[in-house]
Amino acid sequence: MTGCNSRLDFVTLSGGPHDRGITHGERFAAEVKANVDRYFAKFAHYGIPAERARELAREFIPLIDETAPAYAAEMQGIADGSGVPLVDVALLNARYEITYGAYADAAEKTPPRRTDGCTSFGLRATVTDAGRPYIGQNWDWMPDIDVFMMSVEQSDAPNHVALTEAGIVGGKIGVNEHGIGMTLNGLVSTADGEQTFRIPYHVRFREVLDATRLSEAIGALLETDRVCSANVLLGSEDGELIDLEILPESANYLYPSDGVLTHANHIEGRRGESQLERILPDTLCREPRLRHLLTDRRDTLSVADVKDALRDHVDQPTSICRHRNSAEPEQEQSSTRVSAIVNLTAKRVSATAGPPCQTTYHDYVVSEN
Q1: Does residue 1 carry a pLDDT above 50?
Q2: What is the reported pLDDT for 111?
Q3: Around 207, how many Cα atoms within 13 Å sit in the side-chain half-sphere?
Q4: What is the DSSP letter of 128?
Q5: Nearest partner of 36 among 89, 112, 100, judged by Cα
């Protein structure tokens, strides 16, 4: 059990891309290696040999180098700083795409059994007692995955704070100095994996947090086609919110209803045939449950109320606050690894190091230039 006062590791990454990668790799060398081993074990559980995973990862290196050279330099820095081969660092940074590329080899196109779970929300300023907009989520994934909060300081793009996995350049949940924030949910559609090599999601997530405007962040996700599906909820400090259900070659766009926007792991828009609820039927419970909890106190909703909602245990262990299910195989177990609330005005992420019912929220603020 995670201790109530435990907090996420935190590191400042500054200088050029390779310098930031060196700092990341040196600080978390053991964790990067451990995460590589965990993903190899997960791939093996589903019949994907390490050689095939590495073969796919190796092909992403020139693609990332061509389309996002600064990102590629930061990956190289992680490899140099940690002593982990670049191909294994690439495997972490393209883990979504490699999963679907490997499954595309199979004679039967069965969707992967697990991707990131998660339940996300966005709140317009009009529904909060402080009159400020918020986004956030419970990020559900492998309970033992090594993660940390990074403060990224860069001269040619906005500073930001974000959650990432050890070895991955792009953040998952974060906010930048312009008040552009994002959260991430896993999706699965029948179109996933038809094309193997396209810009990885984690590269796009760095571009989101490098954006100076909400439309620029949206463009980073939508301007080119993807390998697989994902859900990204975006917000800006002026209170605008949009949820993007991103499919390989199309997308659905969802907006707040009565100032509240919620999402879990199933496609709600008209485009795409959703698959993940066949694997995680609890997604159909978590999304309306979170909406219900957040709309009950509309106009007087406090951060304390939001934390209570994220600690909810209705339908446990597959609840909003998710816990290990001992009935599942080890490689399929998932729990709330991090709970996060993003204050878009203050440019601050409040996050836990484990299920929010067991841990305390700690604050991580964007560095000022």
Answers
A1: no
A2: 52
A3: 21
A4: B
A5: 89
State the pTM of this model.
0.94
Quick check: helix, strand or coil at residue 106? coil
Which residue, chain included where needed, has tokens 């906005």?
A: 158
All structural domains of the chain, each given as residue ranges with its CATH number in brackets, are 13-103 (1.10.10.2120), 119-365 (3.60.60.10)
| Residue 332: band (very low, low, confident or very high) from pLDDT cuts 50, 70, 90 | confident
Nearest by Cα to 100 from 168, 184, 171, 188: 188
DSSP-derived pairing of the beta strands 134-141 and 119-123: antiparallel
**Residue bearing tokens 């299910």:** 325
* Cα gap 210→220, rounded to integer Å: 9
Is pLDDT above 70 for 188? yes
Closest CA to 317 of 341, 285, 290, 291: 285
Residue 49 tokens, joined: 């040999």
**Is the bond leading into 133 cis (omega within 30 degrees of zero)?**
no
Residue 303: count of CB within 10 angstroms of its CB: 17
Residue 368 gets which letter from DSSP?
Answer: P
Q: Is the pLDDT of residue 275 over 60?
A: yes
Strand partners, 262: 121
